[in-house]
Specification:
This is Uridine kinase. By secondary structure, the chain is α/β, with parallel strands linked by helices. It has helices at 13-24, 50-59, 71-84, 99-104, 115-124, 131-144, 164-172; strands at 2-7, 28-32, 87-91, 107-112, 153-157, 178-181.
């Protein structure tokens, strides 16, 4: 089974992935989208988006743009690890952006946050407490990170404590479910 977990930064994707791996007690491999960010020398969109390029110079790189993700390597790694493991969990901010990745997912869990909750969590992270950048992350997610319609998915309210039993029921069901769980 290939499980995708998505949501804006600070939503709890990695925490949920670790919980699922621990609870399912099957041979599981976790893939984190952050490990698939291309080095800036691979980016080819500078000429296409000069204003965007200027903002990137300010920050050195922009992990919130799909062009910065090596989706081909991610796709190939998911395929490889799905042959070697019972479960592969692929989690990240833009995990459903690429149609090839979406096509691999048996189940998808989307963790929603309100913008206020996201900003609160992001600003409390002492390494990333720049309001301009936090707004950029939010806007990028709204633009590129909400591709889950049509997937067998469960939407969780990340503003509240996640209903972990609902997650386990969703993952153990063989039926196609498209549901929102708001606790």
């Amino acid at each position: 089974m290939i499980i995708g977990i998505g949501g804006v930064s600070r939503a709890g994707k990695t925490t949920l992935s670790s919980f699922i791996k621990k609870k399912l007690r099957k041979k599981t491999y976790e893939i984190h989208l952050d490990h698939y960010i291309k080095e800036s020398s691979h980016w080819d969109f500078f000429a296409k988006f000069p204003a965007f390029y200027l903002s990137m110079l300010y920050r050195k790189f922009d992990m919130e743009h799909p062009e910065t993700i090596d989706f081909t390597r991610l796709y190939n790694d998911i395929l490889l690890h799905s042959q070697q493991n019972e479960i592969v969990i692929a989690e990240g901010f833009l995990i459903t952006y690429d149609h090839r990745i979406r096509g691999l997912l048996d189940k998808y869990i989307h963790i929603k946050l309100t913008k206020d909750e996201f900003m609160k969590r992001r600003m409390n992270d002492f390494k990333r407490n720049n309001e301009w950048y936090a707004n950029h992350v939010w806007n990028s997610f709204m633009k590129y990170g909400n591709y889950y319609q049509g997937l067998n998915h469960l939407v969780l309210d990340g503003n509240q404590q996640v209903d972990k039993e609902a997650v386990l029921r969703f993952l153990s069901s063989s039926e196609s479910i498209k549901a929102d769980v708001m606790t």
